[in-house]
Amino acid sequence: MQAQLARAHQLAYTFFSDFLRDGPTPAVLAQARASSTLAAALAEPRDTHADRDALWAEHEHVFGYCVYPYSGVYLSPETQVGHDRRLINLYAQFGCGPGPDEPEPEPEHLANILRVLASLCRAHNLAGQQQLLNYLASWISVWTDAVVRCQRPVSAAFACLVRDTIYLHRQGLASAQLLDLPPAPTLDLQSPQTTLADIADHLLTPLATGVFLSRHDLASLARRLQLPCGFGGRALLLRNLLRSAARFGSLTAVCEQLAALWEQVLATRHPDCPWAPRLRTTLHHLASIRLAGENRATTDVPAEAL
Amino acid sequence: MSATTKSFLARLLAMAGHSPPNQPDTAGDQKRPQGQMQQPVYHQPNLRPAKLDVVHHGDGRISQYPPSDRWDDWVEYDAKAWPKKLARRYTLVPTICFNCESACGLLAYVDKQTYEIRKFEGNPKHPGSRGRNCAKGPATHNQTYDPERILYPLKRVGARGEGKWKRVTWDQAIADIASKMRASRQARRDGIVYHVGRPGEDHFANRTVQAWGVDGHNSHTNICSASARLGYFAWSGADRPSPDYAQAKATILVSAHLESGHYFNPHAQRIIESKQRGGKIITLDPRLSNTAARSDVWLPTWPGSETYVLLAIARHLIETGRYDRQFVCTWVNWQQTLQAVSTFANDPEVLRVATAAAEHKQQVGAWSFDHFHQLLRALYREFTFERAAAESQVPVERIREAAHIVAHAGNRLAAHTWRSATMGNRGGWQVARCLFLLNVLTGSVATEGGTGLNCWNKFVPKPHSQPPPFNAWNELHMPVQWPFAMYEMSFLLPHFLAEDRGTIDVYFTRVYNPMWINPDGFMWLKALRDEAKIGMHVALTPTWNESAWFADYVLPMGHAGERHDVMSQETHAGQWIGFRQPVRRVAMERAGIPVKRTYEANPGQVWEEAEFWIDLSWAMDPTGELGVKTHFESPYRPGQKITMDEYWGYIFDHSVPGLPEAARAEGLTPLQYMRKYGAFEVKKSVYTPYAKTDDSGRPAGFATPSGKLEFFSPTLHNWGWREQQYCIPWPLQSHVHPSNLDFAAGEMLLLPTFRLPTLIHTRSANAKWLYEISHKNPVWMHPKDAGRLGVTTGDLLYVQTEIGSFVDRVWVTEGIKPGMIAMSHHLGRWRLKQDTGVGAGMSGLAALTETGSAHQLHLLAGGRAWQSPDPDTSRIWWEDIGVHQNLTHAVHPDPVSGAHCWHQKAVCVRKARPDEAHGDVRVDTDKSMAVYREWMALTRSAVDHSPDGTRRPYWFKRPLKPVREAYNLPGRGSNED
Ligand code: SF4
């Protein structure tokens, strides 16, 4: 029974890894039918080029353009790949780190982590599984939430399946605590040195706020409020959005909408979840920004000063 | 959650259990011994990040580019292989976009292994485009790899238009064409015609035609910009404006055609820059374009009424004293105006001022500017906001708001008009005159944030030798009826041929599709098919087009990354030059692979014009007796054909100020510098050059006979256009003025003068990405009219013009004024054979029927997917490829500028009947000729009105000017001024 479960986990993680890495290839899609939710999302016949293109486009859009499947994005204060040493240490512990002459295999890519997890299942390395599951479980919900908000059915079903499998597997192993989150970067809203760009960068750092604001989140928020946010990276979008919100008197609305998003995420978190305090702090920040914006509007300070 | 996840795991197991026993275990790495961890492998990138060049754009955006010192060897991951890290090595070769006249910079990513071009991106070193492009720039890749493109020279084998071709060599084609040219040149000086669409280069072809010694240049200008050119030229001696948008406090766009559809990228980015800085935008356009929607004031004027709005703003400036008296006094020919006013005005109030001014002159011996001020007040006193509102059908407060914005802009008023109102209406050239009046009154002529002239911002270098002007006058191009034509009366060529005014021996259409793009296309069809009228038709084109179908030779010419040209454009108040290059050739040469002729490096045997013209001209005059060959000899190797390196190298060495020094600073020759960067900034800014003085202290002034800006045009006055409405900025009544339309009888105005910024007239039909974005041109109609006619969006609509009819779908929208319909002018491509011609996804399969003067085009099928080496062709999902409306447009040559006045009278607009199909076009060419004659009757011929016995004022521009004697009317005087 245990062996069967290990085999099942190995197959599941391999499938997840393939899906993330290779995209919706026919081989991957064949496996996807094992999940009733994924199968339902894939229910439409997808035999024409256009349908297959749509699947590929969704895959690129969600995992390439909007919600990056790299642990470093969620766990490093820089929101960047290549900054989470703990994972490298874990790999080294399992004996799967890159050799001195080997090319760097992007250890933080979720597909890679899942691949390693599959190998740990295959090798019946329970301690390794526990450690890696604890690592994954510490941030996978932030990633999953952001994917779900993209409102693309196949990707959403897939991300939930990944998260749920990890959680269930971890439960089954009676795993130890989640890995501690690295300390949260701070934001000093009182400081006159804090610029609009600093605020935007802070809001874009999941480690600080507990939410990954994707390009989809930002663009749909801008659309809802009929504010221009331009094109480009997340930082540029959010800076543009805040600047135009200030200019067009919509800063309150932007803060309200962002707060609603944070509230929504907070509502799904367990009170002991390590992300909860960060979510609450951000809500606090948003309220302060909103207030500052309202005060400035009454004193007619130019938007650029925000 | 757990139940579904568990069942997923169970099913996975079950699925794995059914796998064949020998199937490799996808989860494990079979090459590794049991128990060891599998190492996931993506690819061998081993890349170290490069520090990218960062460009901060004026509108606050930031872009990043590969640093130019790494362009020779640039490595980046293949985006298509994501998430695999597939590293590719590129050499980055700059070139110039060929898809509109803006000449933006492109950077071709040429794979170092295969010499395939992987993509085109922006060139950050280009001063005009500053690293950015519109959608058409990167789509050059589509054009390069279009599976339907013409790859080899083709010669017609059946009857003209039968669609039968055989492949020939370049040598064979050149030998045949050159022998015909030689025979023609020996017999006459107007038998060879080079008919160009958008030149997309700055002198090579013109120099070539001049070297042939014939009056053979023909352009598309009269269907494009002739009226705007005349308006600006009559003022200033330069034929196009060059606004300094980025610094402007106010921008007036009389339609946004140029900004959003033509010079899209360089202008658009600078307009947005000004807006970001608080500048205001005023747009006059009956259509709610993207630009209108982004404007501070949108004035949806009735076509032809723009002059009233502009003059109302002018009056506001004059009446409130907000005009720049000093500027007007210094730079406008106000004394000449005061002197002439009694010869053109008949308004008693104006004449009273004229008399007072003349008396003053007599008494004190000089004119007084105060009288000119009084004259302006008297002349324009009736151009109130209310009158403008009534004429334009725009709320008066909007016009007032626009006037206040202009009044507060000081001398930072950027203003522009090119198509739309100027090209739509009879008398449209007065729109340009009235618009520039605002620049003159505000003193914002070539100021920072003002409006300069192209001659100051466009840089055209000089080659090693310039052929002398020819002694000939081609009556088919510059007939006596239009002495002010700007320029050749090209769209009337088939009408002139039909009237037996002449014939053509060798007719080159160069990246031009006259039968499709001109009005009255069936007249073109008749002319192109008639071998007695056009002896040989050679189509130089990168792709199939409807006119090439009726050619004797179809010669494949290169796109942006496949040819050498130099190009510059007045994108802003600076000056730069760009270098277009065949990027694969350059990449090969960088790798040490010798390439003698560009077609060796291009796909198939696609060539470039520069080399082709050299070989053709050489073959036309093998002994040199015609004086042609000498202009194509190397300046370094006498008697030998010039090479590309020699030709462009000479120019960069000798005629681009500052370039040799800049190159030297980098240890490069000027040619190497241009090959490396693709562009060079000659001057960062050019402001008020007319005020610069020479050694004797004389200011440069303007290129008019008076040296001033000519408010009153003595030239128009002397050549028969003596009335006030012609010789000073004044409204002229359009042929589509409401009083010329019988709305009660169902007549409407058809406005065809706009296009979608993602397309390029007939050149983008081989760009799949662009066509996916925009492929149809429904009829825009206001809900009021739709209600009256009982149609809703998607219904078929029958539209009858003066000469024919078409059927298209309707789009009901408030984005257009009531009383008119609008249709973008670049869609509705067709082909006559299923598998040849314009690509099947971008054109409809059509059948042509002709009975006497009655012509019909019937679409048998719309766009469709098809199998080709490019899988995207099987993904074509659209069928509606638009309707070819231009076929049904009657020709409307403006009697002064010669421009085709595009707006049409839709004599009947109704819901289509069941037997009328989408795309159906019917035309009666007898009616075509009747309308042509009606308009010709409005002209004032040089024969009757020339003041000096010449055909055209000598100071007026022509693309290629003949010698002075050629201007003389047969048996008449000489041009001495
Ligand atoms: S604006 Fe014109 S030149 Fe520039 S990228 Fe677009 S098509 Fe090319």
What's a concise summary of this model?
Chain A has 306 residues and is mostly helical. Chain A has helices at residues 2-22, 26-32, 36-41, 49-66, 71-75, 85-94, 110-122, 126-137, 140-149, 153-172, 196-203, 206-209, 215-225, 234-247, 251-268, 276-299.
Describe this structure in words.
The complex is a heterodimer of chains A (306) and B (977). In chain A, 66% of the residues lie in helices and 0% in strands. Chain A has 306 residues and is mainly alpha-helical. In chain A, helix 11 (196-203) packs across helix 14. Chain A is globular and about 65 Å long. Chain B has 977 residues and is an alpha/beta fold. Among the domains of chain B are: 1-27, no CATH class; 226-454 and 703-727, Dimethylsulfoxide Reductase, domain 2 (3-Layer(aba) Sandwich), CATH 3.40.228.10; 739-936, Barwin-like endoglucanases (Beta Barrel); 946-977, no CATH class. In chain B, a hairpin with a 5-residue loop joins strand 5 and strand 6. Chain B is globular. At the A-B interface, helix 1, helix 4, helix 7 and helix 10 of A face helix 1 of B. Iron/sulfur cluster is lined by residues 97, 99-100, 102-104, 129, 133-134, 136-137, 264-265 of chain B.
